Amino acid sequence: MKQYGGVIKPKTKRAKRFLDNRASKLTENVKNAMIMKGGNTSMTVTQALKDIYALKKPSAVLYKKKNITRPFEDSTSLEFFSKKTDSSLFLFGSHNKKRPNNLIFGRLFDFHVLDMIELGIEKYNSLSDIKGSKCPEGTKPMLVFAGDAFDHENEHKRLKSLLTDFFRGPVVPSVRLAGLEHVLHFTALEGKIYMRSYRSLLKKSGCRTPRIELEEIGPSFDFILRRTHLASDDLYKTAHKQPKALKPKKKKNISHDTFGTKFGRLHMQKQDLAKLQTRKMKGLRKRRGPAAAAVVAGETSLKSTEVE
Amino acid sequence: MAACSIEDLLAKAEQDEAEKLKSITVQKELDLEFDIGNLVAYDKNRIDIRQFREQKKEDFLRSLARDNTQLLVNEIWKHPTERVEEVIVVKLPEPTTPLPREKPPPKPRPPTKWEEFAKLKGIQKKKKTNLVWDDKVAKNELHRLRNIARAQKIKVPGVGLTPIAQQSKSDLARAVNVAKSSTASAGKFQDRLPKEKAPRNTGKKRKFQPVIGNFSNEKQRQLDLLKVMDSKKPRLDVNKAVNKQMREVDREEAAAKFKKGGKKGRKGGNFSGKGKGGGGKGKGKGRAGGKGQGPPSGKKGAGKPGKR
């Protein structure tokens, strides 16, 4: 791609398509995640990254090579990678003595780091450890966040938002009822976060709504919250700004009352009640003077003769 | 008795309902918050730590997950469903959790140099109509105007050629000739291309009566001609005769003056030229009358010098 003072001019149609896909849009694409390894990684971390990549497929890229960077200190290489692959979520796995089995979940806004939360893996069961049939790839998972910490603590709130963003998948208008198989359950308890992945079985119940039975499938993690790098409030606010075009258009003249009845107003011109169009009754019509009276008499006599 | 049985019936019905719903009802202190657009459920209830420690961790988490998922599924099933190609799908509402965007919303493209200039000068964009010139319409319009002129007895200058879309060779040649001769000196001094031939068939077209046409007309015309030739009296055009007489008188006076004037009379040379021209004309036209006197058949060529 040829560059001219920062403006890239694509040479092929494929390049042009990629640039258009990467450009700002009104309704955005699914967030892509890049999963990468740090300078030193353990077996646990590599396996964990692979499992999360399996959960997040196809909107994720897994890098094989190690990247010797420290996201909390220098995030330039992360931003560079995100721009190259058009990813706004990342997962960085590393391992050292001070922070064993470290996973950093993060997201970017406009290819600059927005939030980063470091989680340490205390206990881990991989996909291969747990036997049983798994969910097909790409199913939209149901997410459940349990525990009051997710509501009271600031860091946990951000973590909740980050995890939702990470795992929710594409936003769709409708979902197949039989396809609601995957459930990701996060529990915040005693400073730890337990992540479990289940497969839901819809069993027959007496009524329309099925009874749920769960079967554990996917990776299970016991996380501990370590460092965080959260975005400042105004940057967070800017990131949330929705374009005006997306707001639903308010229809004028329509109002609802407390019962839910829909009201609208009709605007009419002033009516002249004297000239209103009503049913015409010939007998009630006004007759003028004696001539009129004679006419009436004549009419009535005529009518009587006709009848006879 | 009847009342008792009704009460029993109602109680039984309630029991049945409860039985049915038992499988899907979950007892919770606080109701869960849902974001069905994202398939997310938030459980804010406090988790009993003692229970968590007593039970096996996994079982506790699994039962908690099962309850929460059941509530989420109950909520999803409340939404409207539709059938799409033999598959039942549930229509999801818009997601309610505010999540940050990937990139800032697209900015409207900046105005170009021309647009800025136009705004500065107050130039508005004029919409061009989709009308295209059509030769048939133009011809129709021309004839229409000519008809109107003829009806209102307005003199209309002759139009050389009307434009035609598909022009043949002869049309083009004619157009060239018309263009050539439409100069101040009637095309006399226009250069010709090396191999261009002089245009033929130019000049006034003589109109002849058809050979076999109106018999009565032809008969009438021939008889008139004979009558004119037969008559002893010359056909006299009073106007022309008077003018001729006046000119004769003027010429005589001029000649008399010339004789008198001598040198001064050189000016008379002009008069003679005029007189000649006038005389020639008069002779030529007068000859028509004179024709009747002489022998009917004669050398017409010699007798008509003025006509050409």
Please provide a written account of the structure.
- Chain B: Residues 268-281 have a biased composition (Gly residues).
- Chain B: One of its GO terms (biological process) is ribosome biogenesis.
- The complex is a heterodimer of chains A (308) and B (308).
- Chain A is of the alpha+beta class and 308 residues long.
- Helices cover 26% and strands 31% of the residues of chain A.
- Chain A has seven helices and 15 strands.
- Chain A has helices spanning 13-22, 43-56, 76-85, 149-152, 154-167, 233-240, 289-307; strands at 2-4, 7-9, 33-37, 60-66, 89-94, 102-109, 112-125, 142-146, 174-176, 182-189, 192-203, 211-216, 220-229, 254-256, 262-264.
- In chain A, strands 3, 4, 5, 6, 7, 8, 10, 11, 12 and 13 form a ten-stranded mixed β-sheet that branches. In chain A, strands 1-2 form a two-stranded antiparallel ribbon.
- The model of chain A has no long low-confidence stretch (mean pLDDT 85).
- In chain B, a hairpin with a 4-residue loop joins strand 1 and strand 2.
- The longest helix of chain B has 24 residues, at 238-261.
- Chain B is rod-shaped.
- In chain B, strands 1-2 form a two-stranded antiparallel ribbon. Chain B has a two-stranded antiparallel sheet with strand order 3-4.
- Chain B has ten helices and four strands.
- Chain B is mainly alpha-helical and 308 residues long.
- Chains A and B meet through strand 6, strand 8, helix 5, strand 9 and strand 10 of A and helix 1, strand 2, helix 3, strand 3 and strand 4 of B.
Question: Which key terms come to mind for this protein?
Answer:
heterodimer; A: 308 residues; 10-stranded mixed beta sheet; two-stranded antiparallel ribbon; 7 helices; elongated; B: 308 residues; mainly alpha; 10 helices
